[in-house]
Amino acid sequence: MSETILENSRFYQVEGASTGVILFHAYTGSPNDFLSTGRFLQRAGIEVLCPTFKGHGTDDIYDILEAHPDQWWEQAQAALHYMQGRQYERLFVFGLSLGGIFATRLLTENHQTNLAGGVFNSPVFTAQQIDVGYFFEQYARHLYEKQNRLDEYQVEKDRIMSLYREQIESISYFAMSFYMELSQITSRFYLAQSGEDEMIDPEDAYLVRDALTGAQEVDFQWFEHNTHVITTNRERSAFEQSLLAFIQR
């Protein structure tokens, strides 16, 4: 399993690193979500693993649609197991958007004293079911356009969006299945939210914060002018600095 993780990941290695970080990417994303963040942390002497969730990082939209959150959860657990085997003094699990759901669940189930983490613009706990249909449709269209297959896309669009809605329901169900356990997180927790998040309601971040009643600390950072993919945003510098400060504290 560890070999599979590394084959489908970006790994920012640091010889003799005492701190390790796992970064889980967004829905329809890839480890490219963390090109800047991974290198930034690596320069600070932190070793970083960025796994690829099944079905992501390809030009076939059906690869994502045929995957299931339970498979992504298995991958998240495998990534944690691999990094625990590297014997860091401190280990952190973070996730962007979809990835934050899996990082958070890992923290509800693992309570080692050297483990902490958090989320960036993540729909861990939402007032209403998430729906990024507009953005998913644009993403699917882009993949077909790259391959000069727009005519096929017009034929397959309804089926693609039907499968998307089924998958979003599965993701929402997965998140709801453990939201009552958020109070069981006892580690330090980093919560970053962009004020100009165009994909999820920024106000939902307060629901997550208020549910973390057992956390040792909740470092809630609001970035007023950042958008959803905060790790690639032009205004990401303050985010990166605050994340590093949380890790190094």
TrEMBL record:
It comes from the Bacteria. Residues 21-171 form the Serine aminopeptidase S33 domain. The active site is at S97, D197, H228. One of its GO terms (molecular function) is carboxylic ester hydrolase activity. The lineage of its organism: Bacteria, Bacillati, Bacillota, Bacilli, Lactobacillales. It holds the Pfam family Hydrolase_4. Signal peptide: none annotated. This is Carboxylesterase. It comes from Globicatella sulfidifaciens DSM 15739. InterPro entries: AB_hydrolase_fold (IPR029058), Esterase_lipase (IPR012354), Hydrolase_4 (IPR022742).
